[in-house]
Amino acid sequence: MFSLIQNELIKIFKRPGTYVMIALLILLTVITAAFIKYQQDGSEVEEDKNWKQILVAENEALKQQVKNSGAQMEQDYLNREIAINDYRIKHDLSPSEEYNMWSFVTSASELIQLAGLFTIIIAAGIVASEFSWGTIKLLLIRPITRAKILLSKYLTVLIYALVMVSILFVLSTIIGAILFGVPEQASPYLNYYNGVVTEQNIIVHLIVFYVLKSIDMIMLATMAFMISAVFRNSSLAIGLSLFLMFMGGQVTFLIAMKYSWAKYLLFANTDLMQYFEGSPVVEGMTLPFSVSMLIIYFLIFIGLALYVFKKRDVAA
Questions:
Q1: What confidence category does residue 26 fall into, taking pLDDT thresholds of 50, 70 and 90?
Q2: Residue 39 has what pLDDT?
Q3: Which residues face 189 on adjacent strands?
Q4: Domain total of the chain
Q5: Taking the CB of the first residue and of the last residue of the chain, which one, N or C, has fewer CB atoms within 10 A?
């Protein structure tokens, strides 16, 4: 299996397009940092000595909004803000903090979507291209099972995704340290889950944050991989996956506004951060439920790809 994965990685990194994707990711990270730095120049965050009184007043206003709000999602969000403000007051944690290295790493996480786009392109072509070039026959005549061949290709896609996200994380950390500075003592991240606020080390939080933000990318890449294996058409896999990447979440949200069965849709469950920094798309959804749905979709995608790939006649 290792030699198969190594062979697939060599194929990917022999293509000039792979380095163009990496260069674009690096370039856009640098541009994002330069833009934020330009916006930050001349502005400094001054800590208000009366921040506790301000948070108390803010909580009174938020509690009033909770009473007047009829939407459960809005109430959940407001209650989260109230709980975090109460925690700050109780533990003397000021909300004022200069924009720093870790702030930029958080901002740069938006580029995970770009890394996802590149991963989808790789996933969509890694099987279909073998059929279009006719090289699939050279793989199948070897004394290796079709399942191993397909799984090695999928694991290669995951490794590529990991490389892209790792480049983004490391690069944003380095650029953030250079342009925005390293804080002497980074403020902890206040994690909110099931009505309880806890402190989390900022580095641990960012790693978890990047992992959770990458789930959407992994699921779409898995779907593109499945389409590539089933239909042997990279254009279809790329087109459908990109359409769902940009429109799936919005369409799911619109359906969820009217129908509770929307919770079973893939894009209602890919954003696990909704349980920590917001509220579920559909009332009643839980973190274990979303994880279970993701596992089911994942098994369907991989199972379908394996079944069709193992049964397909490639003689023609």
A1: very high
A2: 82
A3: 200
A4: 1
A5: C
Burial grade of 28 (CB within 10 A; 0-12, 13-18, 19 or more): middle
| Beta strands per DSSP E along 63-120 | none
78 domain-assigned: no
**Any domain includes 276:** yes
Instruction: Pick the closest to residue 73 from 283, 264, 251, 258 (CA basis).
Output: 283
157-212 pLDDT tens trace:
999 999 999 999 999 999 999 988 888 777 788 888 777 888 888 888 899 889 98
Taking the CA of residue 92 as centre, how many other CA atoms within 13 Å lie in the half-sphere pointing to its CB?
A: 1
Give the pLDDT of residue 138.
65
The angle at the Cα of 181, spanning 179 to 184, to the nearest 5 degrees, equals 175
Please determine, for residue 139, whether its predicted confidence score (pLDDT) is greater than 90. Answer: no
Q: What does the DSSP 8-state code read for residue 179? A: H
The pair of structure tokens assigned to 208 is: 């978890």
For residue 2 the two structure tokens come to 């290792």
Residue 236, number of CB atoms within 10 A of its CB = 16
Whether residue 68 is contained in a domain is answered as: no
Asked if residues 241 and 116 have their Cβ atoms less than 8 Å apart, the reply is: no
Alpha-carbon Rg for the chain, nearest whole angstrom, is 23
- Sign for the pseudo-dihedral over CA of 260, 264, 270, 272: positive
Residue with tokens 């799936």: 248
Domain that holds residue 34: 2-45+97-311
